[in-house]
Amino acid sequence: MFRLAVLASGRGSNLQAIINKLHLSKNNIKISCVISNKKMAIALEIAKNYEIPFYLIDENRYNNDEYEEMLIKTINSHDIDLIVLAGYLKILSAKFVNTFKDSIINIHPSLLPAFPGLDAQKQAINYGVKISGCTVHYVNKKVDTGPIIKQKAVKVEDKDDEASLSKKILKYEHQLLPEAIELIAQGKIKLNKDRTVTIKE
Amino acid sequence: MFRLAVLASGRGSNLQAIINKLHLSKNNIKISCVISNKKMAIALEIAKNYEIPFYLIDENRYNNDEYEEMLIKTINSHDIDLIVLAGYLKILSAKFVNTFKDSIINIHPSLLPAFPGLDAQKQAINYGVKISGCTVHYVNKKVDTGPIIKQKAVKVEDKDDEASLSKKILKYEHQLLPEAIELIAQGKIKLNKDRTVTIKE
Description:
The structure is a homodimer of 201-residue chains.
Chain A: E1 2-8, H1 13-23, E2 29-36, H2 42-49, E3 54-56, H3 64-76, E4 82-85, H4 94-99, E5 104-108, H5 120-127, E6 131-138, E7 148-155, H6 162-185, E8 189-191, E9 197-199
Parallel strand pairs in A: 1-2, 1-4, 2-3, 4-5
Antiparallel strand pairs in A: 5-6, 6-7, 8-9
Helix pairs in contact in A: 1-6, 5-6
């Protein structure tokens, strides 16, 4: 069994995609727990509906050290193989990243290294790019700079605004993130020393 | 007639693409002059072969002010509508850019704003992106940051190195640059105040 912890802060649409494409499928990949830093995260409701263990670690109730200590304990209690950040909007410390070295992935709504950080789709619209997309990458100590596992390009049309571009990109996020998780679970992803990522033959 | 000045520093493959797709076609777009800063630029040979006026302004013989003064004089002597940087590897001053405001375009071998500057393909390979591409943009005072006219995405395969990626991207540069020039010549490109570029309906 390949066990996932999914961390989410929001509506949980990427969580739902992982549930639909992996958790409910006949394979050896299962979501062992869903953790949110936000009280109102719909992701927690989704986890509940599918009887997946879920945890709220309310970021407003703890300082960062306390928060991460609880997060680490929760993850360790589930014997996790991969931590998936699926719309998780809290920055993880270097300590956390070291604790789960090369075992954390994130989905970001741009073609990194373009438009890291928050509101990537808005950044793309404001810059006036004609192509944006999404990126699945390993998480390292700096935000949105880790080794890239998969990317998908999305055309930006003249009529697009932040909302319409976000919607288009999200559709591909829902494909790309489960694809990347499946490749990792199958042992097909090789993280090279030069920080490139290749598919094993 | 829509008159182009093409500035090139190297082998001139983008110049050749403009000649094939625009200069030799039945339209109102013509290359009025080719200018190089490099003595050995094959681009000058190509211009000669097609009987296009060509100029060498050897960057090693003049300081930057002298160089640009000669460049401006040469361009002005040809009543140019658009200056096309086609593999032109010399940075233009703010004065030059102001002199030909919104009338200079460049082709860059990455999906800007990712990987500006020299060796964009090498930067992309070293970063480990899965998608790169090329960008046609207006030239402003900062290198590779001007309003984007057109972009094309190119997949980076695990086996790609700088040479193979450059070759793949170049193929699309040869499409994208003539397409952008044609749209501008047809008056179909609108450079908006918010620095985005849209196609006129």
